[in-house]
Batch of 4 targets.
Target 1
Amino acid sequence: FNPVTTIKYAVPKTAHVRLEIYNAIGQRVAILVDANKQPGYYDISLNASHLASGLYFYRMYTANFSKTKKLMLIK
């Protein structure tokens, strides 16, 4: 993506959701979501204009779920 992308996610039941962005060496560079969410579909915009080109990971987790995916930022 360059430099804005949308991350979509679903919440099956009410939960505290946290969505974080990490760089390739594991440093957290942003927290996009840190809130209680009701069941439903959500999308969040990531503006990475302040980040360098490279590989990033986003991690979404709740008390019972965790998922990590990668992103490639090309400027």
Target 2
Amino acid sequence: MRTLILVLSVVAAALAAPAWKPFRSAQAHFSGVFPSAPKASQSQTDSPIGAVTTQIFTSQAPVGSYSVAYTELPGAAVRFASDKVVSDAREGILQDAGAQQRSWTPINGGYELGYASPKKQGWSQIFLVGNRLYILDARVKPGTDKGRWVLPFFAKFASQ
């Protein structure tokens, strides 16, 4: 009986919302919270506006992964094609996740994308701040409580 209680306690602790850890990147001009210390990486993409470099900060939790991607865009891309930049970001997220769009909602200064695949559900927030594109992405197991496992990640994000 004690073993069962111990196992249930360990499982309950693993499913409890994370103790969100503050993070700030001066180079990527943002602050926020992650469930664990994020690992930084970069990717380079060829695009119609030329090669762009994206910095990605990724953190893992028992229910899934969390990332903030930051791209400094050429001014012309933002001035003349901001809608295209945002729609390309949305399509890239869906393709990368192998998911179908569930929702697309304007939010304060950007958009929130909801999506799902058979093994994951996710939400992304996409913001253009000046020439900077930010994509916040939370991919979690189906049925995960968005209020505990996703909303704090989004709510504490701030561009600087």
Target 3
Amino acid sequence: MKTLYKQYIVVTLAVIVASITLSMLLLGQIYNAQVQPNTDAQNFEVAQEVKQILSTMPGDSYDAYFKSIAKFGYQLTISDAAGETTHYGNPFKKADVTPEMSAIIGTDQVYHGIQDYKETFFFMNHFANDVQNTIGVPFLLNGEPHALFIRQGNATLFSEMHFLIVGFIVISAIIILGTMVLLARQLVQPLKQLQQATEQIAQENYDIELNIERDDELGHLATQFQKMAKRLAENDQTKKDFINNVSHDFQSPLLNIQGYANVLKDADNTEEERIQYLEIIEQETKRLSALTKQLLLLSSLDQKNLPIDKKHYALDQQLKERVFSKRWKLDDKQMELVYELEPIEIFADQHLLEQVWDNLLSNAIRYSEDRGKIVVSCSKKGDVVQVVMQDYGIGIPEEALEKVKERFYRV
């Protein structure tokens, strides 16, 4: 697998190589257009001065003069009509004088080897240590026609400033490459954290902490990723709560049906009691049917898009039905039930409030002692309807009151 880090390094190196290649091509064009002609002209001026001085010198001092010029960093080749050559200064790597070069002997022509030299690539022609890469001028030596071929040696061309420039370029390239590597590592490290976090989420582990503090796109991505993980954790918890709610909401009507079914087995029940118990069982089965339709409502509550079905109905009648549905539980625990219900009509979701009253009554019975007492009342004061379900059971510890509204919290 190609990692992003390796790809980044490869791309960086490719960009550097491409930049260097393009730079060399451009430098080659600049060298061919400006530097090469200028260098040729400068060396031609030197050759002309040497030729002029030679014309005024005695014949026995030529050799010493050529040696003195070579000491100033020049490379010289003297060629006669017979093709014999003499070299001064650092020797040429390629020292063969071509017929084209020899053709200027005894004429007024000039050999512009520096301007026309194309043996190597780009601007490296400037440093070619070849006798053909010279300026050639004809002159007389002891009355005999000769040719002088001259150029500056590479040691002279590479001055201290040139070495500084080359060193600057090399050091800059190393620093740039090192910086790119560090930047690549800083870029890839957050992505590795995000990759590991993604793997944890795939394993349903949503407790993720990303140590990415950046004020850029990666930092924004990390922030949004953590928000996503938190949202997934909430959805996962909602799913678990949904299962708990299903179990919790189905338990009460099922227990009621089971309880009254057991009561119906008693042969001492009157016909009126049997009908009443059967009606309660029927109500509880209807309630189960309604609960199956409301299972999705719990999920909708968490997602804040619950469709509330409000209508006008009698609150006192609803409370009375809920109280009677718990009658068998009250009888089992020999508990006293007192209810004071004013005739009140409200505009609300009947099924949701039914679950509220059922939960409160179930808890009141469950946590009350045998032969206890439960009081249920509803009253209206102005625009406020008050429902009270009071028991005399074990109560709730004061330190747990703050957690009463938490789902399924128990003490």
Target 4
Amino acid sequence: MKRIITLITLVLVSASTLMYAQSSSETRQAERKAQREAQKAREKAENERNYAIAVQALKEGKFVLEADQLVFKRGRSAFVSSTTNFVLMDGEHASVQIAANNALAGPNGIGGITVDGSRKEMKITTDKKGNVNCSFSVQGIGISAQVYITLTNGGNNASARISPNFNTLTLNGVLVPLSQSNVYKGRAL
């Protein structure tokens, strides 16, 4: 009889330990799931805030598209420095700078081309999905460029298609207000 009672006690203790372990595991899983959902909600709120700030900067005409990727005419791409590859607008003044990471100095002194001049014919539209499109031209001394910017809804990721006198390029990066930008401008043409 003592053996049966001991055996029953052992079974009950094992079962309760197993139930506690399963309960603890389920609790940890629920906590991790709640943390992931909270992180996603924070990221979504941050992206929406960045989008609103970027749209406002576009409308005010005081923004910088800091590009970290350069896409060439036939689809080849290169990752570049966002401090030297950008589209900048400060009211009626605009600059477009491309500086590929190479050993050549280039006309602007940092490996590329800088178009610096007045902004003309700016037009901003928003499509049904909330993507903002902005187009304008930059009239420099030796060169001019047509710029088409697309700000994707839900964040401050943007791309700029640049059609200068010689070749079409695309810059991909983030659009930030001019006051929050940290870019380095080379010599303009």
